[in-house]
Amino acid sequence: MADDKFPGWHGTTIIGVRRGGEVVVAGDGQVSLGQTVIKGSARKVRRLKPSGHDVVCGFAGSTADAFTLLERLEKKLEAAPGQLARACVDLAKDWRMDKYLRNLEAMLIVTDGKDLFIMTGAGDVLEPEHDIAAIGSGGNYALAAARGLMGNEALDAEAVARQAMAIAADICVYTNGNLTVEKIRG
Prior knowledge:
Elements: E1 9-10, E2 13-19, E3 22-27, E4 31-33, E5 36-39, E6 45-48, E7 55-61, H1 63-79, H2 84-97, E8 106-111, E9 116-119, E10 125-126, E11 132-136, H3 139-149, H4 157-171, E12 180-185
Helix pairs in contact: 1-2, 3-4
């Protein structure tokens, strides 16, 4: 099939919410090819334990590319235990400059419970404003919903993430309500 006719893979919404000393990363399970749902139960949020330090990552984009990046991130974290910011910046440099890595098509949300980052192939390591990070097809819907929900002090990080994902799933056809949720304390 010609590239211009290929419908493209879509699907994923990942959100990270920091509140009350914990960070929750939630991701939906949908993978779509054009207008067809290929899988509804993909697991796009992972817990890594390099050198005994917990790190939670969520990814959007190509699964194989994301796994390659997660493996590289794990190696960077093993080289700099407990230094998430340094490991992310080192990975972003490699991702941007390496001839092979620069072609990887994925985005990551990464947290150790203290820091929360969005990583992109453009070399970005962004610490999001308002303690909310969101990526993927429905990322902007989940981000907007979470920002509105943060005004409700009765909601903890998990409740904000779950409700924001439910709103995104109602709006974005590439997002479903089959969630994987990981919590980590700072």
